[in-house]
């Protein structure tokens, strides 16, 4: 038995060596940014006060919003199928109180809760943005402290567990009788190891079936890789909930699905398995030795293959892009689209579906067979688009934020390199802010919302994501607007990945758009987060003026705004459409824009500081220094840009 235990420890250690670990957020689902004042909390309290009744009168599922931007609150309530009205109301009411208690300042929250006495489960969710898209962050978990006993046949148990999972998941995806019953399934199975095992799955009704499947798959990943051997537990995301246990925690369990148990081994086999003879023990010892040796060899091969493949990819600069090389932050592989599917969706890249064109390719609108609208970026052949393609796929697969455009997949068949994004109906910001007619739709409230959203997206890139990324090409044409005019930072083809502790780098390859590049980057190739801050400052001033950067006396908007600031007349650059709006608030943003566009990079604020300034009316903002500007530029013979003025010319890729 001593040798057997030692070998099992070696085997377990070898296997754990190659398993990936997941970041887990324990506790309540409070996340996102903090409310800037008490108005948001008051709006949430007012909306929550009627949420329980609204859920009951709308069939068990209800969502609504209240207030005005930036303190507008969106809330959602849901009771699982088969709920008792009074119990459902109590459950939702309790979770609204818990949310206000545990997440007093968080603008985003979700709580999948249950009443163990009444045995009902419900959801209360709130946010400062509308719902409807899949959200897989953060996870909230709860695990049973008990482990499955050592005498249980774990192989047989997991076979039965997976069988229950498949049947429950299948039933959940098919459930669509009503909005509240959609994506709901509850089941139980008579296991060999235990009398009964109960399982419940539920997605919010506002996401797609594919999104529900992906969300529940992410929940199952925690059990399979992190919590194997526990006797129950739960994992929830904002979009879905999974729980299983050894007792009927969900009393309603309407139309409970019974999953047939796998057959129990014959008694004779059980006896032989539990009390092996001497010959059997010898054979078992040989088998274990073979398994251990093979496992150890496989681990060595895996390590060697990984190192060789990593080195090869570095030498080839990531030349071969395949679906298996790129996975998102939740471990889901990127979808690799067939070229025929792309051609069908875009009607063979029909000119009627063309949305726009840049230096690296053309963007088309497409529609998949399932009705989902997509944006397809077809990179130009023979350009530097190949570098952009690899860069964007490798970065966007690991980024997820509401103010970043979402990459759905890619295609690289033959000489075609194609990126597939979520479709953003209002196209890019430059189509609005620089258009005489459409600019009227950009009220001050909408412009402020866009400016703040861009800032939050950059904070995520610079500080909050698992990667540290410098965009390098921030401009109005690379900001997309969704149906509610929420901004999404796009085009990461020239973005630069930094190490966590890296603050600055140098490059000879100057990539970006003239007029938006910081002087230290353009003149000396010095890249830092402050490079993006500079670009943000230019975009902010464009938003306030409604004019392009190069429209101000040939010197750039930052230079023009600085002169008017020194003269005490900053209001001159304000868009005439905003003359009736609060000038003090607009002038404060001009001040922030000038601070971001200062010549000295060390004097520029961080994007997190900018977000604080935007949200606060009480903080004293420092006075800006002069921005960098002259009136001419040139380009060196080796192809690298050499320019003394970064504010005089705008060119679109």
TrEMBL record:
PROSITE patterns membership: GNK2 (PS51473), PROTEIN_KINASE_ATP (PS00107), PROTEIN_KINASE_DOM (PS50011), PROTEIN_KINASE_ST (PS00108)
Binding site for ATP: 377
SUPFAM superfamilies per the UniProt record, alphabetical: Protein kinase-like (PK-like)
Subcellular location: Membrane
Domain Protein kinase: 349-619
One cellular-component annotation, GO: plasma membrane
Cross-referenced Pfam families: Pkinase, Stress-antifung
Any one GO MF annotation of this record: ATP binding
Residues of the signal peptide: 1-27
Record keywords, A-Z: ATP-binding, Glycoprotein, Kinase, Membrane, Nucleotide-binding, Phosphoprotein, Receptor, Repeat, Serine/threonine-protein kinase, Signal, Transferase, Transmembrane, Transmembrane helix
Keyword hit for Cell membrane: no
Record domain Gnk2-homologous: where: 22-131, 143-249
Recorded topology in the membrane: Single-pass membrane protein
InterPro entries: GNK2, GNK2_sf, Kinase-like_dom_sf, Prot_kinase_dom, Protein_kinase_ATP_BS, Ser/Thr_kinase_AS
Annotated TM spans: 283-306
PANTHER family (UniProt xref): CYSTEINE-RICH RECEPTOR-LIKE PROTEIN KINASE 40-RELATED (PTHR27002:SF1008), RECEPTOR-LIKE SERINE/THREONINE-PROTEIN KINASE SD1-8 (PTHR27002)
Protein name: Cysteine-rich receptor-like protein kinase 40
């Amino acid at each position: 038995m001593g040798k057997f235990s030692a070998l099992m420890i070696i085997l377990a250690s070898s296997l754990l060596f190659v398993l990936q670990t997941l970041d887990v957020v324990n506790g309540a689902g409070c996340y996102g940014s903090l409310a800037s004042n008490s108005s948001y909390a008051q709006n949430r309290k007012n909306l929550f006060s009627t949420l329980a009744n609204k859920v009951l009168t709308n069939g068990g599922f209800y969502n609504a919003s209240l207030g005005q931007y930036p303190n507008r609150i969106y809330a959602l309530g849901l009771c699982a199928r088969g709920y008792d009205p009074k119990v459902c109301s109590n459950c939702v009411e309790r979770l609204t109180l818990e949310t206000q208690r545990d997440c007093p300042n968080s603008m985003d929250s979700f709580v999948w809760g249950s009443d163990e006495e009444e045995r009902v489960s419900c959801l209360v969710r709130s946010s400062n943005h509308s719902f409807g898209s899949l959200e897989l962050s953060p996870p909230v978990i709860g695990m049973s402290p008990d482990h499955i006993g050592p005498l249980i046949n774990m192989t047989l148990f997991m076979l039965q567990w997976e069988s229950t999972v498949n049947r429950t998941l299948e039933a959940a995806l098919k459930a669509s009788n009503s909005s509240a019953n959609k994506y709901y399934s509850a089941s139980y199975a008579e296991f060999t190891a235990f009398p009964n095992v109960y399982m419940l799955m539920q997605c919010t009704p506002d996401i797609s079936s594919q999104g529900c499947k992906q969300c529940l798959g992410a929940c199952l990943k925690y059990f399979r890789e992190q919590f194997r051997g526990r006797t129950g537990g739960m994992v929830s995301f904002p979009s879905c909930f999974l729980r299983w246990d050894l007792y009927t925690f969900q009393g309603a369990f309407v139309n409970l699905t019974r999953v047939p148990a796998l057959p129990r081994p014959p008694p004779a086999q059980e006896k032989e398995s539990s009390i092996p003879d001497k010959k059997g023990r010898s054979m078992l010892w040989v088998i274990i030795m073979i398994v251990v040796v093979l496992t150890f060899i496989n681990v060595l091969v895996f390590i060697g293959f990984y190192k060789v493949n990593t080195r090869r990819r570095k030498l080839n600069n990531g030349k071969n892009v395949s679906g298996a090389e790129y996975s998102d932050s939740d471990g889901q592989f990127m979808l690799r689209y067939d070229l025929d599917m792309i051609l069908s969706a875009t009607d063979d890249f029909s000119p009627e579906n063309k949305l726009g064109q840049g230096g690296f390719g053309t963007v088309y609108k497409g529609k998949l067979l399932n009705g989902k609208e997509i944006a397809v970026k077809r990179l130009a052949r023979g350009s530097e688009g190949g570098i952009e393609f690899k860069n964007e796929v490798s970065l966007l697969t690991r980024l997820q934020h509401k103010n970043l455009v979402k990459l759905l997949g890619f295609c690289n068949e033959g000489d075609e390199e194609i990126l597939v994004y979520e479709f953003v109906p209002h196209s890019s910001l430059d189509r609005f802010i620089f258009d005489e007619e459409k600019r009227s739709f950009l009220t001050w409230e909408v412009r402020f919302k866009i400016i703040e959203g861009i800032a939050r997206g950059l904070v995520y890139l610079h500080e909050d994501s698992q990667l540290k990324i410098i965009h390098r090409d921030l401009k109005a044409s690379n900001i997309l607007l969704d149906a509610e005019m929420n901004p999404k930072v796009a085009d990461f083809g020239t973005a630069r990945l930094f190490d966590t502790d890296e603050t600055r780098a140098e490059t000879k390859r100057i990539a970006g758009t003239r007029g938006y590049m910081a002087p230290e980057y353009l003149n000396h190739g010095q890249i830092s987060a402050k490079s993006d801050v500079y670009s943000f400052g230019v975009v902010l001033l464009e938003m306030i003026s409604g004019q392009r950067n190069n429209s101000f006396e040939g010197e750039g908007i930052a230079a023009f705004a600085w002169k008017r600031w020194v003269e005490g007349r900053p209001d001159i650059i304000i868009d005439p459409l905003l003359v009736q709006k609060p000038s003090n608030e607009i002038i404060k943003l001009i001040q922030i824009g000038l601070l971001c566009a200062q010549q000295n990079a060390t004097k520029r604020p961080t994007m997190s500081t900018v977000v604080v300034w935007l949200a606060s009316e009480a903080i004293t903002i420092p006075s800006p220094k002069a921005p960098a500007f002259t009136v001419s530029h040139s380009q060196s013979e080796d192809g690298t840009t050499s320019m003394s003025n970064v504010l005089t010319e705008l060119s679109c890729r």
